[in-house]
Amino acid sequence: MRTSARLAFLFSWSVWFVAVPPQTRGAEDGYDLWLRYRLVADTARLPEYRAAITQLVVASTAATMQAARDELVTGLRGLLGRDVPVARAVSRDGALVVGTPANSRVVAALPLADRLREAGPEGFVIRAMAIRGRRAIVVAANRDVGVLYAAFHLLRLLQTERSLAGLDVVSAPRLRLRLLDHWDNLDGTVERGYAGASLWEWSRLPDSINPRYRDYARANASVGINGVVLTNVNANALILTPGYLAKVAALAGVLRPYGVRVYLTARFSAPIEIGGLPTADPIDPGVRAWWAAKADEIYRAIPDFGGFLVKANSEGQPGPQDYHRTHADGANLLADAVAPHGGIVMWRAFVYSSTVPTDRVMQAGDEFVPLDGSFRKNVLLQVKNGPLDFQPREPFHPLFGTMPRTTLMMEVQITKEYLGQDSHLAFLAPQWEEILRADTYARGPGSTVGKEIRGIAGVANVGSDRDWTGSDFNQANWYAFGRLAWDHTLSAAVIADEWIRMTFSNDARVVGPVQGMMLVSRDAVVNYMTPLGLAHQMARGHHYGPGPWVTGGRADQTSVYFNRADSAGLGFDRTATGSNAVRQYSLPVRNRFSSRDSVPDTILLWFHHVGWRERLRSGRTLWEELLRHYQAGVDTVRWMQRTWDGLEGLVDAERFRRVQGLLRIQEAEARWWRDASVLYWQSFSHLPLPPDYEAPRHPLDWYRQLRCPPDPRKPRCDAVLGAP
Ligand code: BDP
Fold first, then answer.
1. For residue 14, how many other CB atoms are within 10 A of its CB?
2. pTM of the entire structure?
């Protein structure tokens, strides 16, 4: 090639690189998540960033530092469109200095002591400052993992096109434990998982390590997630046998540089099943010795093993009550075994026993409050966000306000078992924000759930699908979970804004509308599925479509148990005249929820049985409000469809079409929920639908007789989707 031709060739390529919009490069199959690192589109920012970062100064080659350095090299290459050379010393303006006082002489010499103290063990400092007369950006932390978090934070600033001028950030996580709980089985299936099979290829481990594990670790570290429970709470004791522990150790080796520790679920009956003991009684000396030896064995294989997560005496799982011992006896047994190694036990409060109680939502409160103060220091009681089971909306769990002498953590569900699973768009940050900010009054006013907990676990929505989570928008929930776990005072709006910019575009014509969609999406689901405090109204088995009529079998697994619809009205009376579940809340909360005058409309029917014609605070009757809410749910989905349609050409064609298709499913299924529910309530209220109300397409019986295809993972109903 002649020189001029070569120049022309190079020129055409550089123009292509700068001018061609990112969506035309490479497949947008979702694999890269929010770590896409496409060239900065803002023509003013790009030169600013290129001048601000001209070299990367990093001294250490320790594994976590290497991970930080690799991420910065890759990220900056993509974002700046050119390589940033790595150096050992500051030699020009624009140095990005990365390190801890222990591994970098440059960092150690800087006046950062106060800020680093504030950052604590996992936090970090990012500052624009002069180093020997040269402009620099310093990314510093007390420990290597803090540097890694800082690297991701800095990349996020570039990805979201923020100014780097005068940078002065100190950030530290508010919660110590920020965990993903995988409900993954050893046979590769995932309990309530909607994104393919399990990520963990047990049959290939420990010899074959799928490169995805590292990308999974990167994604977690990018939002500060610092632990993963690899296995299902409905546990299999085999995971604790030597062969499997070698596999776990191999996974731990991949996750370790990213600050992600592994945890396992412990099946309470493991001493019998894999230990050959005659009992698993927590006070039996042989059982205690077995768990202690098992813990020693685990820590020999995985020195930084995090500890155990346990579901006991719930939904048929074995537990201490099988031996007439308490949950505290069970938790303390395991806690004592891991304590010498610095491990913890997360004991779940989701207890759902084999005998039907008067009110299922009271069971955890009744069992655990008397045990307050009797758990070991290294036990955390892991409490679901609400007292029932991950419904679209529940009040906060009363245990958050009534266990002052117990260390608590919260469990939320990222995988949307009850919110449209893989297909409906439901951004969950508003739900978690609502709970984290709820005031428990545990220690007087201002005792929010966020302040009462020491950790948070999210039931993972991650599987082997190429896009990890089963849909483009489901990725936002993984992201949001990590961001809120780091800082539960962040708002859902801010988190959505970040995620959209990193995942789709910084174009204001995209960011605003998509943020609008995300922020209304969870309420839309609440409205078309279970408005005004209703809960658990789905058809039997799959937790997907509507089934408010479900009855028969175990009472507290039926919809009618929860809705209490009758000719008088609708809703579960949980005040003193009913189950009195409201007594489980501390006093100001109890009074607020007990009174029809002060209970929020959003949870009205959770606590009260309300007459069909009774007037709510709006001045409308319950019947009118119900109709309005169901319709609002459908209308919001239609609005989301129109909003998304308006983004054609602004979002890459692949993701545009995928989301469009899912919104079509969601609209049809929102109507299904509305029509089936309204017709069923009408069979009790005998009140008319107003003439201008969108008429149900089929009679009630049609909905009652509908049988969905027997695919438990994707229980779509063609009849519903095919409806004109
Ligand atoms: C319910 C799920 C069930 C889980 C259980 C749990 O339907 O599959 O095993 O929670 O949290 O939501 O243990």
1. 11
2. 0.95
**Strand ranges (E), 18-88:** 55-58, 86-87
pLDDT digits (tens, 9 = 90+) for 170-228: 999 999 999 999 999 999 999 999 999 999 999 999 999 999 999 999 999 999 999 99
User: CA angle, 353 as apex, 309 and 548 as ends, to 5°?
Assistant: 105
390 Cβ inside 6 Å of ligand 1: yes
CA 186 to ligand 1 center in whole angstroms: 17
User: Residue 115's Cα: distance from chain center in Å?
Assistant: 30
- For residues 657 and 30, the answer to whether their CB atoms sit within 8 Å is no
Model pLDDT for residues 372-431, shown as the tens digit of each residue: 999 999 999 999 999 999 999 999 999 999 999 999 999 999 999 999 999 999 999 999
Show Cβ contacts of residue 140 under 8 Å, excluding neighbours closer than 6 positions. 97, 98, 99, 100, 101, 104, 107, 110, 112, 116, 124, 125, 126, 127, 147, 150
Q: Is the pLDDT of residue 708 over 80?
A: no
The finding on whether 394 has its CB within 6 A of some atom of ligand 1 is: no
Q: Could you tell me the residue ranges of all domains in the chain? A: 3-22+528-572+609-721, 45-171, 177-503
Residue 627's CB is within 10 A of a number of other CB atoms, namely 22
- Judge whether 306 and 346 are in contact, CB under 8 Å: no
pLDDT at 364 over 80: yes
> What is the spatial distance between Cα 481 and Cα 256, in angstroms, rounded to a whole number?
20
Evaluate whether the domain defined by 45-171 bears CATH number 3.30.379.10: yes
Q: Is beta strand 168-171 parallel, antiparallel or unpaired with respect to 95-99?
A: unpaired
Q: Which of 389, 573, 667, 675 is catalytic?
A: 389
Average pLDDT over residues 353-382: 93
The verdict on the CB of residue 190 being under 6 Å from ligand 1 is: no
Mean pLDDT of 463-476: 98
Q: Topology of domain 3-22+528-572+609-721, per CATH? A: Alpha-d-glucuronidase, C-terminal Domain (3.90.1330)
- Cβ(557) to ligand 1 under 6 A? no
Rounded (10°) CA dihedral 155, 160, 161, 166 = -60
Catalytic, 498? Answer no
Q: Tokens representing 470?
A: 């089963």
